[in-house]
């Protein structure tokens, strides 16, 4: 399927009608979802006939994009019942099968730990000239993601070829470090690759943490995430946030 056709299909996905600020619910646009899924499949072959998980799936935009591109098995994980209900309706509209699981992805001490790390502002390797970053995992890296997966998710450890996600950025009180907590869990669930969106301003830190967790991180593209006026505290009609599309590759 061509990129434009995929994006056109995704325009039909229903998104949040009453988003919840505590979960930082911002819909992934059809434009971004199409590009993520298209690149994952056409460049790396990470979707067709693969077991794919969408972490923090929300209304299912990324999941549906993966399904249209031929994913063999789909799972969606989210904390919000209302979002999962919308996702179920979208799956029925697109005639796709996906197992939806209600779970707190970052339950337990995981968020606490990543919030503390973020607070310390551990610096990672810097990339001169703003070029796309590509850092290999340390040979001494331990697979420390697995021992911090929330119990309801632990049975899915290393059960997916590919994990796709647009995690909360951690900009709201109480959510500090949540983006890295999501990444830590995703690396524990995936066997081959994780695709994720993160604020470009966190690039160096993400490189350092991913390598420590045994993953090779590559920035595939720098994109603009359009945040619409969805909450009362939003002063402008929309804001463009610079984000990186990452691919994290896991070794055997």
Automatic annotation (TrEMBL):
Q: Which GO terms describe its molecular function?
A: nucleic acid binding; rRNA (adenine-N6-)-methyltransferase activity
Q: Which Pfam families match?
A: PrmA
Q: Which PROSITE patterns match?
A: N6_MTASE
Q: InterPro entries of this UniProt entry?
A: DNA_methylase_N6_adenine_CS, rRNA_MeTrfase/Polyamine_Synth, SAM-dependent_MTases_sf
Q: Which PANTHER family match?
A: RRNA N6-ADENOSINE-METHYLTRANSFERASE METTL5
Q: What is this protein called?
A: S-adenosyl-L-methionine-dependent methyltransferase
**Lineage of the species this protein comes from:** Eukaryota, Fungi, Fungi incertae sedis, Zoopagomycota, Kickxellomycotina
């Amino acid at each position: 399927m061509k990129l434009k056709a995929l994006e056109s299909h995704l325009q039909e996905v229903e998104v949040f009608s009453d988003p919840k600020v505590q979960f930082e619910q911002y819909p992934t646009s059809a434009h971004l979802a199409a590009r993520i899924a298209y690149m994952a499949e056409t460049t790396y072959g990470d979707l067709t006939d693969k077991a794919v998980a969408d972490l923090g799936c929300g209304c299912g935009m990324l999941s549906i994009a993966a399904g249209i591109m031929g994913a063999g098995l789909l799972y969606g994980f989210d904390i919000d019942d209302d979002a999962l209900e919308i996702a179920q309706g979208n799956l029925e509209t697109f005639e796709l099968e996906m197992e939806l699981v209600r779970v707190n992805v970052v339950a337990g001490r995981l968020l606490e730990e990543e919030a503390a790390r973020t607070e310390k502002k551990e610096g990672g390797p810097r990339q001169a000239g703003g070029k796309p970053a590509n850092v290999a995992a340390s040979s001494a890296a331990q697979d420390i993601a697995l021992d911090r997966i929330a119990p309801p998710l632990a049975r899915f450890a290393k059960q997916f070829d590919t994990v796709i996600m647009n995690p909360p950025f951690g900009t709201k009180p109480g959510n500090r470090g949540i983006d890295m907590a999501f990444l830590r869990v995703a690396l524990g669930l995936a066997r081959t690759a994780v695709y994720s969106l993160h604020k470009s301003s966190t690039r160096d830190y993400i490189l350092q943490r991913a390598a420590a967790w045994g993953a090779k991180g590559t920035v595939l593209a720098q994109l603009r995430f359009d945040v619409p006026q969805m909450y009362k505290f939003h002063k402008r009609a929309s804001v463009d946030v610079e984000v990186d599309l990452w691919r994290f590759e896991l070794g055997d």
